[in-house]
C-alpha cells in the first residue's frame, strides 16, 4: 500500500485496517500528530485529507490511498512557520501544547475554506478538546489573524 503524506509517496507495511494515526506516528515517524481518544472526538490527531481536517485515529490507512494527507510537519515547508502557528506564538496560546498540532491543523483548514470566519465559525471549528483551557487565547489569536 502507498500513501501520499506531506507531498511524498510512502510505501506502507502496516495492515490495511491500521488507523492512519498509527501509520503516521509508528511507521513514518511523524509524531506531531497526537493520540488522544482513539474515537475521533478529541481532535488531537487532526490531519488534512485532501485539504479537509479529519481525525486520523478513525480512518483506516487503506481508505486514504491515493489521497493527499498533510500532517503538522508538512503544513509549511521546513524552516517556515504557518500564519496560524505564528498567531499561536504571538498570543501565547500553548500551555502543555499536546493538543496544539491538531488545533492548528483544524484552524488552518477552516481559514483555507473560509478566510473571514465569524466568531461562531471559529468557536465551532477549533475541533480539539484542550484540557488546559486555552480557548480564550485561541480565539484572541484567531481574531487577530482575521483582523478583528
Automatic annotation (TrEMBL):
Which stretches make up the 2Fe-2S ferredoxin-type domain?
1-75
InterPro entries tied to this protein: 2Fe-2S-bd, 2Fe-2S-bd_dom_sf, 2Fe-2S_ferredoxin-like_sf, 2Fe-2S_ferredoxin-type, 2Fe2S_fd_BS, Beta-grasp_dom_sf, Diverse_Oxidoreductases
Name-wise, this protein is (2Fe-2S)-binding protein
Task: List the molecular function annotations (GO) for this entry.
Answer: 2 iron, 2 sulfur cluster binding; metal ion binding; oxidoreductase activity
Give the matching CDD domains.
Answer: fer2
**Source organism, top-level taxon:** Bacteria
Q: Which UniProt keywords apply?
A: 2Fe-2S, Iron, Iron-sulfur, Metal-binding, Oxidoreductase
**Gene3D superfamilies linked to this entry:** 3.10.20.30, [2Fe-2S]-binding domain
Q: What is the lineage of its organism?
A: Bacteria, Pseudomonadati, Pseudomonadota, Alphaproteobacteria, Rhodospirillales
- Keyword Cytoplasm found: no
Amino acid at each position: 500500500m502507498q500513501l501520499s503524506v506531506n507531498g511524498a509517496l510512502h510505501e506502507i507495511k502496516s495492515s490495511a485496517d491500521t488507523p492512519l494515526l498509527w501509520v503516521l506516528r509508528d511507521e513514518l515517524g511523524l509524531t506531531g500528530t497526537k493520540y488522544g481518544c482513539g474515537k475521533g472526538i478529541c481532535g488531537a490527531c487532526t490531519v488534512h485529507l485532501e485539504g479537509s481536517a479529519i481525525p486520523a485515529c478513525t480512518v483506516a490507512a487503506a481508505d486514504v490511498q491515493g489521497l493527499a494527507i498533510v500532517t503538522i510537519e508538512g503544513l509549511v515547508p521546513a524552516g517556515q512557520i504557518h500564519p496560524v502557528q505564528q498567531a499561536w506564538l504571538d498570543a501565547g496560546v500553548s500551555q502543555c501544547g499536546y493538543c496544539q498540532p491538531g488545533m492548528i491543523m483544524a484552524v488552518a483548514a477552516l481559514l483555507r475554506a473560509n478566510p473571514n470566519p465569524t466568531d461562531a465559525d471559529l468557536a465551532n471549528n477549533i475541533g480539539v478538546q484542550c484540557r488546559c483551557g486555552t480557548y480564550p487565547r485561541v480565539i484572541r489569536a484567531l481574531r487577530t489573524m482575521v483582523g478583528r
